Here is the input.
Amino acid sequence: MFKFKMGCGTSTKAEQLKNEDEKFNKDNKGGEDEYEIGKDGKKVKKKKKKDDEYLLQTLQGHKGGINCMGTNETGQYIITGSEDKTAIIWDVNIKKLFKVLKGHKSYLTCVQLLEEYAYTGSADKTVRKWDIQTGHCEVVIEGHAGPINRLICTGDFLFTGSYDRTAMCWDPDDGELLHIFRGHKRGITPLMYIPAEDALKDDVTDIDSNKDMFITGSADGTAKSWNMDSGDCEVTFRGHKGGILCLSADSTGTVLFTGSADCTVRSWNITNGDQFKVFEGHESAIVCLQVINKLMYTGSSDQRAKCWITEFGDCTRTYDGHKHTVSSLRFRDGLLYTGCGDNSARVFDAKSGALKRTFKGHDFCINAIALVPNRMITASHDATVKIWDIEDVKEDITNFGEDDEDKEKEEKKKKKKAEKERKEKEKREKKEREKNKKNQVESVEMTDQTSLPEKNEFENNEKQGETGSTGSEKKDPEKGANDTDDDIEAISRDMGD
Here is the structure.
């Protein structure tokens, strides 16, 4: 009887396979990952994954994970901020590194490109302004007591939010401090700026509403809007039970949307702070959101993205397939693009919810995505930036959404036509009723006119009859009395007999 021992030695066959593997790898350039075991048990070169067919370029230059990314208006340049304390400007057209911005003393948290300048915020509590073409630092802005978390530059103003519980407004030209916004009880996370031309619409008659709006969200669970002249808090939006992680507004600039760690999104009257709707459905924190017309798209750490109708608070679509937090999302041309902590980016048919393409290639979580003409750019904690071809992604979409839209339009046309026919029918019936009623009235009037002589004659006869009988009674009162006496005598005679 034989007894087998596992792991106590190496069989001849195993040794032979090991030697073959070593010889195969030595003879063929390329790593182990480029090969796979075929159906016959032999190693064959892996076929290029379909997902990788759309990868145009991998940009390398950072030595640490990428935390944030921004693009300029034309989409030619992108900027990334990294754990390695640097920011890099990349030229998308030539797919190469353009400038390295060095100077911060800690990791970068936020970046922005505006016209010919770049702005970077860091955990070293400072913001720096850079010349894009030269890579030279023009201004160093200091004043916060904690790490910079977010920044927004409008051209006229530079806003910053920090973990020191304050937001600040600066002159971007020279770094002069203009306002300090105090009031939050915990660190400030998202920022949002709405210029006056967006805040004042045709249906707004109050001239006082024609002013810039600056809004902050905080880990204390509130959002606040601030007076740009005095720096005072105008409205506090209360209701969330967790920190606010993302902000957005509708196209009119009158409705505020806040995404929170309490798994909900809430909509508010941006002027007075009244709450409109609570969007419930996610099972974990809301990490990102985007509002497009009457729809809102949200990404959550529950590994899902969702689409909502902003007016009613209803969820119309759930985008499944993610295996980690949906860290970023962008909507464009009927498609929803998502970046995820599972190292992949995805594109969905926004209307049907169908997953149309998965972009694999990163080795770590994707922290940011950006869309430029015919390209999607992803930035990852693996320290790389990848450029993907999305030029034909619209063609890859099934006709489900389009057919659905056509059916919906056709259905609306049918309903409109039916409604029109119903109204016309009611109108015809109403006219018919009015006509019949008029005819009946005319008939009655004619009948009355025809019978009027007979009626008059009848009434005259009645009057004459009444007059005749009354007159005879008045003329022979004694005759009537004598007739009565004769009747009594006759009855008495009969009884006597």
